[in-house]
Specification:
With 556 residues, this protein is mostly helical. The protein is built from 16 helices and no strands. Helix 4 runs antiparallel to helix 5 and helix 13 packs parallel to helix 15. The chain is globular and about 60 Å long. Bound molecules: heme-as (HAS). The site of heme-as has 33 residues, from helix 7, helix 9, helix 11 and helix 13.
């Protein structure tokens, strides 16, 4: 019964139109990744005191390029491309015409937005970092460009919804394939989250940056940014979880542990990802402690679906291992396919996510946030989460997705090279992110270039670890260049053939999934209800009792 809920798709191949759409997204993603990696190397070497930048190149310009390209462009393009491919794969191999049309329209809008934003960043007119905090002011075209990127991603999301609807129409009364359901959840979360940043950009940043209004309500702009900023991290994470839940079981020769647990964890993310933004503003004035406490409470609740995922993954690993004859408490560990890069890269990400996620819980605890906020600890946290757990899973996906889409094969030699690439990345992150965590605890701030603060003894004590950071960053650069090269090889030069798109099957013993899990009116109402409770009063308060507005500043 439960088995019947999963479309049986093992032999299905993503057809050419859907493959082209997905590949177009993935290739832009890796182009952005390559550029971001170059920027990352430069800033790592500067911060480590190894090089100084020429006069014409500003550190904050490089830092903005790194954050925007890595955090916003690589991720968004990759995610939408991956989701389109998975939706096509699990709904019969193709996308409906509406899905393709919307997908391409969204892709073009995102590309135009990307070009606009790139010009402003490269001309040093938008060195405001990826969070573009007011009152630092970028060129209005930076905001319009990033706005277009977001609107394009909405249109892409509508393409995914259209494909889901087309499948539901053809299969009345059936539960959607698990991957497709997860893709819809991811884009629902994204549409809800980006409302905050869209309001900030359209109502505040664009009029203010054009000079149509003299000042900006800084606190409101930060609230709207973080309304978006935290669910943004789950927008990065959910496709990763989709890969772990759906693709990994097939890769390791196991079964999906529970369809309903997987769906429930995605629904919990829709409910709980957004009404938690104040945990990024625990040190901000102008928000009362009660509201901060409420957001922290919900933050602790949003940890639960990640713990459910961890539980589920251990269950998959153990049952796959035992089915292959593993004995003892940890015998299953040895049965995992450690020499398969499609498994190794994501599992390295999972392992990194254990300290990465634990660091998140530390960040969210008020007193400990006082210690780490605005220190380079936070940079260490997000390099373990998005930079390792998410990025390494994306690598693991690319190793089979790209050849599947182009009708080529992941050869044993590329698999071996992939293992090397993944090990270098993991080692680089261990060194860089580990140093960042320690340096943060020693008080070293984030978002700064190299300085000894006039030879202050505390600052001088940071220098050896900043060197380790630079070493880690250099390893990451090598690994990134390898990855870009491998993606290009897999896309255009690898031997022709068939590469499987791995879709796991549900464990025979899994319980039947309840139907309410796809009742979208109830799901969306509950999500909106929690957001209204968490945000309505503080937002009205900060508008009614607005602090004096700030004129634009150019700090670089
Ligand atoms: Fe975070 C700041 C709290 C998760 C990203 N975070 C950031 C920033 C970024 C970011 C980019 O409360 C910086 C923003 C900026 O520029 O200012 N974060 C959390 C919490 C979680 C969390 C509570 N963050 C993430 C994820 C991210 C991410 C995921 C990206 C993808 N974060 C914060 C807070 C701040 C913050 C504060 C603000 C700090 C400040 O003061 O500025 C939780 O969701 C984490 C829950 C996760 C776990 C881990 C579960 C483990 C799993 C793996 C299992 C492993 C297996 C492998 C199965 C509890 C699922 C075993 C295999 C074998 C073979 C053994």
């Amino acid at each position: 019964m439960a088995q019947a809920q999963m479309a049986d798709v093992q032999d299905v191949r993503v057809d050419r139109p859907a493959a082209r759409l997905s590949l177009a997204h993935v290739l832009v993603a890796f182009l952005a990744f390559g550029i971001a990696a170059i920027a990352g190397l430069l800033q790592g070497l500067v911060r480590g005191g190894v090089i100084t930048l020429p006069k014409w190149l500003n550190y904050y310009e490089v830092l903005t390029a790194h954050g925007v390209y890595m955090g916003l462009v690589f991720t968004t393009f990759f995610i939408i491309g991956f989701l389109f491919s998975g939706v096509a794969r699990t709904t019969g191999g193709s996308l409906p015409p509406a899905g393709l049309r919307l997908g391409w329209t969204g892709w073009w809008m995102m590309v135009v937005g990307l070009v606009m934003a790139t010009v402003t960043v490269l001309t040093n007119n938008a060195s405001v970092l990826y969070t573009f905090y007011a009152p630092m002011k970028a060129s209005p075209y930076f905001y319009i460009g990033t706005g277009l990127l977001v609107v394009g991603s909405w249109v892409g999301g509508f393409g995914i919804f259209a494909s889901y609807r087309a499948w539901k129409r053809k299969n009345p009364g059936k539960l959607s394939p698990l991957f497709t359901f997860m893709a819809v959840c991811t884009m629902v979360l994204w549409q809800i989250a980006t409302i905050g940043v869209a309001l900030e950009v359209v109502l505040q940043l664009i009029p203010w940056s054009f000079g149509w209004v003299p000042t900006i309500n800084v606190l409101l702009s930060r609230m709207l940014l973080w309304y978006f900023g935290h669910p943004l991290v789950y927008f990065w994470l959910l496709p990763v979880y989709a890969m772990w839940y759906v693709n990994i079981p097939r890769i390791i020769g196991g079964k999906i542990f529970s369809d309903s647990l997987a769906r429930l964890s995605f629904l919990l993310f829709i409910f709980l990802s957004t009404p938690v933004g104040f945990h990024h503003q625990l040190m901000d004035p102008g928000i009362s402690p009660e509201w901060k406490f409420f957001h922290v409470l919900l933050t602790m609740a949003v940890v639960v679906p990640s713990l459910m995922t961890a539980f589920s993954m251990f269950a998959v690993f153990e049952s796959a291992g035992r089915a292959k004859g593993a004995t003892g408490l940890f015998g299953w560990f040895k049965k995992l396919p450690w020499n398969d890069v499609r498994f190794f890269a994501p599992v390295a990400g999972m392992i990194a996510f254990i300290p990465g996620g634990t660091g998140g819980i530390i960040n969210a605890s008020y007193q400990m946030n006082e210690v780490v906020h605005n220190t380079i600890w936070v940079t260490g946290h997000f390099h373990l989460t998005v930079g390792t757990a998410v990025a390494m899973t994306f690598f693991g996906i690319a190793y089979w997705l790209v050849p599947h889409l182009t009708g080529r094969q992941l050869t044993p030699a590329v698999n071996r090279l992939g293992l090397v690439q993944a090990v270098i990345w993991a080692t680089g992150m261990l060194l860089m992110s580990g140093s960042m965590h320690i340096l943060g605890l020693l008080g070293s701030p984030r978002r700064t270039a190299y300085t000894t603060y006039m030879n202050d003894p505390t600052a001088l004590s940071w220098m050896p670890l900043q060197g380790v950071m630079a070493l880690g960053g250099s390893l990451l650069f090598i690994s990134a260049m390898l990855m870009v090269g491998i993606v290009l090889y897999l896309a255009f030069f690898a031997p022709k053939g068939f590469e499987e798109y791995p879709i796991g099957e549900l464990d025979d013993t899994a319980e039947t999934t309840p139907r309410f899990m796809e009742r979208w009116s109830v799901i969306l109402s509950l999500a909106v209800f929690l957001i209204v409770i968490a945000y309505a009063y503080p937002v009205i308060d900060v508008i009614q009792n607005a602090p004096p507005g700030s004129p634009p500043l150019r700090t670089w």
